[in-house]
């Protein structure tokens, strides 16, 4: 199982990195986890079809590029006579989203209408097979089993646990501290954990510090901790996240880096 970091910034893109988006590839199955601003572009640089998209929560930095990605998936259906990339069909990609997303998509897809190419106004109907999930639900995509674990955030957010039968990746999306994190990450080979902050979140919004990420990694006995969702691009600040997490977790720790692929 390979994990490609497409973007790893909290909020809007910064320092040349898109917001949240991660591609999981088992060799048989390719899943996109989250789709923030910049991810449609980053994904376009990685060849291959998608077998599914899973969105942790409906904050803009985790889902904004679903519309341009959907329109990109529709590209074969457009008619540009003579151009080789056009004139085909589009197989809908399963899209798992939190409850309420379908209503949002219905409004969203009405924006920027193109009368001469009406299929482009139907990205969420044609490019995707949209399924609203409930916390605790299980799904299968190819050789991958996907579990959704409810965490705590200012919008409903489910962490994602993906296993291909041999290797397991756990990803938080956005969350504050909760016992559910340990269940999400339990014995995962790679724990891709948000570490937005260097101090404990006192705002109630729901984010982790790097030390808290390390504490969960230790309790869950994960194989490797990958910190992500950074609030700053400042190098010393980023290095400090490693120090903070390392004070709680003895195993290997690394920082997510846009464009980099790691083996789970
Ligand atoms: Zn969020």
TrEMBL record:
SUPFAM superfamilies linked: Metallo-hydrolase/oxidoreductase
Domain Metallo-beta-lactamase residue range list: 18-229
Domain of life of the native organism: Bacteria
TM annotation in the entry: none
InterPro entries per the UniProt record, alphabetical: Metallo-B-lactamas, RibonucZ/Hydroxyglut_hydro
Gene3D superfamilies: Ribonuclease Z/Hydroxyacylglutathione hydrolase-like
Descriptive protein name: MBL fold metallo-hydrolase
